[in-house]
Write a structure and sequence with these properties.
268 residues, alpha/beta, Metallo-beta-lactamase, Chain A, seven-stranded mixed beta sheet, 29% helix, hydrolase activity, hydrolase, Metallo-B-lactamas, MBL fold metallo-hydrolase
Length: 268
């Protein structure tokens, strides 16, 4: 079967992704209401009872809004590092002790035949992480809320077959937008969010024969548009000598209001 995934929702209004293989189904974050998560799961023919656990990237509300409710409803284990647990405990409510599992930043853990690697990222949270998933020779990386693309992150997600990568904002749209300057400065800073240009710069370095598709994720509804993001990322890559055909590599959409179709990492 290999790795399959669907991005249920992506953006500042809520984030959740489901990754599965033949014997394991995991959710990354639960940043929408439990009711909405159930609706999105149903759209992709998944039930809460099929989820084996929830991996948490960090404690911001758009990543944990429904975490406690979903975990309690389906008696699910939650995996997060200790600092994230400390930062989010008051927000998610009481969690059964057996479902409160510490997964350290940098830890590699096997969930059945699905191997998961956690790695640290730069963001204004207690100890934010992103994740890589492995099944045999397949590799999927899911990395958003990146203040910048560090060498450590590049190393972690290199040699991926498919990526879900942040392309949060168009820099000029953000600078001219309605946000107060302190928020703009946060987003643009090294602990904020990755711009379209920065996503393209990173992809130009990460493009190998293995990388087949990248889903542009966590787009700002105020300061970005999917078509603009894809165009800017492509232009940024080509400026750095990275040319490709859609038959060789594809930039794919994510949505804040509906899930992406199931994608099999093994598919060309």
């Amino acid at each position: 079967m290999g790795i399959s995934f669907t991005v249920l929702s992506s953006g500042s209004t809520g984030n959740a992704t489901v990754v599965r293989n033949e014997d394991t189904t995991l959710m990354i974050d639960a940043g929408l209401s439990a009711k909405r998560i159930d609706e999105l799961l149903k759209e992709r023919d998944v039930t809460g009872e099929e989820i084996d656990g929830i991996l948490v990237t960090h404690e911001h509300s758009d990543h944990i809004k429904g975490l406690g409710a979903v975990a309690r409803k389906y008696d699910l284990p939650i995996y997060a590092n200790e600092k994230t647990w400390e930062a989010m405990e008051k927000s998610i409510g009481k969690i059964a002790e057996e479902n409160r599992i510490v997964m350290d930043s940098g830890e590699v853990r096997d969930f059945g035949s699905l191997r998961v690697e956690s790695f640290g990222i730069s963001h204004d949270a207690a100890e934010p992480v992103a994740y890589c998933f492995y099944d045999g020779n397949e590799k999927l990386s899911v990395a958003t809320d990146l203040g910048y693309m560090s060498d450590k992150v590049k190393q972690a997600i290199s040699d991926s077959d498919v990526m879900v990568l942040e392309s949060n904002h168009d820099i000029e749209m953000l600078r001219m937008g309605r946000y107060p300057w302190n928020i703009k400065r946060r987003i643009l800073g090294d602990m904020g969010h990755l711009s379209n240009i920065a996503a393209g710069e990173a992809l130009s370095e990460l493009m190998t024969g293995d990388l087949k598709r990248t889903y542009l994720a966590h787009l700002s509804r105020d300061h970005n548009m999917m078509d603009l993001a894809k165009m800017t990322v492509r232009d940024s890559m080509e400026e750095r000598g990275c040319f490709y055909k859609d038959s060789e590599f594809k930039l794919c959409d994510t949505y804040y209001d509906r899930p992406t179709p199931w994608d099999k990492v093994s598919e060309p």
